[in-house]
């Protein structure tokens, strides 16, 4: 009997410890993030006024996707997305708190209101648009095709019956070519490095991938030219906010249009992407004032 | 050295950033491990108890922890509690909670196993000597249990330390994430930096886990 009494005491102590731990968590956090609490009653996001009043805007960016969002050797966030984020902070008149996001948790961050804006190379798709609200675009993405200088492929029609196109399995390029050009023979590789070696060895006539990838490849490796810089349905990259956060969304749209007047995104490109993609592709990649060319 | 790209480690504040990331990983794991050991001992004792309800509850708890990947637990605690209850747990509190939730369950099961492995004659002899149940536990069962636990718990502890790399999914920048940031930031100038940096990260994890394993070896010998 005594033995079980001791155990009962232990059980109570354990329950108390867990309760205390949980209570401590709750307390610590409501104190640390008063601004978050203010927004949570308005369906989990902070309105424009709440952000301005708090003095900080939380922006989710990539921290390891050079040259769009990365951290330099001094520990500062840099890149095309970050350059824009910095400007948003200045124009809102608040500090920017960068949150390091991964491709897999960007939507989750917005839906829980843990960040106000996602600026993480976020491609606009229909599925995503049902989960979050996209502002006007600020960059283009499409597929591109790179080929050796000796025989530059400038159109898919130039490919002969024996020519094979190199793709990386699981990429948009593979899906697009299989769907729209089933007559083209594909050579599939699992990794970037393998596809690169295959092209260098002349195993295929050309290599299709995201245009940013093939452009960067052609610039780093002399002897290759991007014959088709923009193929297929052109997608765009845009900032995203929590679904229903109209005040912030409208402010962002106005901001992007206003920045178009001063050619802000061209300046951004020249400051952050020029080294990687060169001047030739500036107009292919940049979207100014939210207006896409197509 | 040049070809491995170790030199990028000495650019700017990179080395400090990497060590800062290591501190984040160590801080989360040390707090969680300490909490797990304390709670695990209690849970283990309770799991060997007579109450079928209590045993059932802890069984359910243990199975839950076993089934759910740590990544899912992190998402549930960090994002899920915000969705469901509007709580705004910080990433660090969420991480410590998840790792303790996991560690305490597994530790509890290890303790349970270790207690059951003590021959019942030990308890019976102690009782025959007139010891109270508290004395039986304090002087006879627990000391022997703890000794048997050491090698088992070291596996769990080192596993917890290495698993902290998952906290990058809830926005925390720990040592592995810093390494990836440094590799990416230097992708064009030092394409091979990945080899060198991951080798350094390996050494850093080793530097944390090896002393723990040595301490365990020492304790095992001393208490044998």
Question: What's this, in brief?
Answer:
The complex is a heterodimer of chains A (294) and B (224). Chain A is an alpha/beta fold and 294 residues long.
3D structure, described in words:
The complex is a heterodimer of chains A (294) and B (224). Chain A is of the alpha/beta class and 294 residues long. Chain A folds into 2 domains: 35-138 and 238-285, Periplasmic binding protein-like II (D-Maltodextrin-Binding Protein, domain 2), CATH 3.40.190.10; 141-235, Periplasmic binding protein-like II (D-Maltodextrin-Binding Protein, domain 2, 3-Layer(aba) Sandwich). Chain A has helices at 2-32, 34-40, 48-54, 80-92, 106-111, 126-129, 172-180, 192-200, 211-220, 246-261, 264-272, 274-277, 282-285; strands at 56-62, 64-65, 69-71, 77-78, 95-101, 117-118, 132-134, 139-148, 164-168, 185-189, 206-210, 224-237, 240-242. In chain A, strands 5-1-6-13-7 form a 5-stranded mixed sheet. Chain A has a 5-stranded mixed sheet with strand order 10-9-11-8-12, sandwiched between helices. The radius of gyration of chain A is 24 Å and the shape is elongated. Mean pLDDT of chain A is 85; it is low at 19-42. Chain B is mainly α and 224 residues long. Chain B has one domain (2-223): MetI-like fold, CATH 1.10.3720.10. Chain B is built from 8 helices and no strands. The longest helix of chain B is centred in the N-terminal third of the chain and has 34 residues, at 14-47. Chain B starts with 13 loop residues before the first helix and ends with a helix. The relative contact order of chain B is 0.17. The model of chain B has no long low-confidence stretch (mean pLDDT 91). Classes of the chains: A alpha/beta (294), B mainly alpha (224). The interface between A and B is large, with 51 and 48 residues.
């Amino acid at each position: 009997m005594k033995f079980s009494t001791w155990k009962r005491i232990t059980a109570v102590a354990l329950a108390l410890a867990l309760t205390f731990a949980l209570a401590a968590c709750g307390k610590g956090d409501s104190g640390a993030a008063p601004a978050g609490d203010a927004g949570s009653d308005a369906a989990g996001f902070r309105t424009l006024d709440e952000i301005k009043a708090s003095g900080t805007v939380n922006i989710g960016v990539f921290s390891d996707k050079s040259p769009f969002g990365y951290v330099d050797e001094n520990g500062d966030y840099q890149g095309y997305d970050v350059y824009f984020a910095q400007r948003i902070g200045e124009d809102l008149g608040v500090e920017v708190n960068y949150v390091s996001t991964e491709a897999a948790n960007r939507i989750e961050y917005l839906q829980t209101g843990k960040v106000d804006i996602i600026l993480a190379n976020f491609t606009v798709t229909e599925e995503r648009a049902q989960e979050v609200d996209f502002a006007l675009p600020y960059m283009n993405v499409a597929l591109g095709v790179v080929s050796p200088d000796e025989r530059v492929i400038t159109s898919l029609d130039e490919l002969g019956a024996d020519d094979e196109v190199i793709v990386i399995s699981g990429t948009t390029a593979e899906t697009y070519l299989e769907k729209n050009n089933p007559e083209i023979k594909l050579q599939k590789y699992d990794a970037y490095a393998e596809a690169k070696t295959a092209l260098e060895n002349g195993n295929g006539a050309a290599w299709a991938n995201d245009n940013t990838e093939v452009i960067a490849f052609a610039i780093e490796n002399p002897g290759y030219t991007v014959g088709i810089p923009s193929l297929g349905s052109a997608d765009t990259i845009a900032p995203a906010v929590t679904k229903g956060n109209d005040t912030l969304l409208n402010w962002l749209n106005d901001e992007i249009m206003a920045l178009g007047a001063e050619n802000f995104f061209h300046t951004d490109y020249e400051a952050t992407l020029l080294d990687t993609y060169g001047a030739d592709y500036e107009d292919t990649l940049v979207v100014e004032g939210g207006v896409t060319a197509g | 050295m040049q070809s491995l790209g170790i030199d990028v480690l000495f650019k700017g504040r990179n080395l400090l950033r990497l060590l800062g990331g290591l501190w984040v990983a160590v801080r989360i794991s040390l707090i969680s491990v300490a909490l797990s050991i304390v709670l695990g001992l209690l849970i283990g004792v309770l799991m060997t108890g007579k109450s079928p309800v209590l045993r059932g509850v802890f069984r359910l708890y243990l199975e839950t922890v076993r089934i759910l990947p740590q990544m899912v637990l992190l998402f549930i605690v960090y994002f899920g509690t915000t969705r469901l209850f509007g709580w705004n747990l910080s990433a660090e509190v969420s991480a410590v909670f998840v790792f303790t939730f996991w560690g305490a369950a597994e530790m509890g099961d290890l303790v349970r196993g270790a207690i059951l492995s003590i021959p019942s004659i030990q308890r019976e002899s102690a009782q025959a000597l007139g010891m109270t149940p508290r004395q039986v536990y304090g002087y006879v069962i627990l000391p022997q249990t703890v000794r048997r636990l050491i090698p088992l718990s070291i596996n769990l502890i080192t596993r917890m330390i290495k698993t902290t790399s998952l906290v990058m999914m809830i926005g925390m920048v720990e040592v592995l994430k810093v390494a990836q940031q440094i590799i990416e930031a230097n992708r064009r100038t030092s394409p091979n930096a990945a080899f060198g940096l991951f080798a350094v990260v390996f050494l850093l994890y080793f530097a944390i886990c090896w002393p723990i394993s040595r301490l365990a070896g020492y304790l095992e010998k001393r208490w044998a």
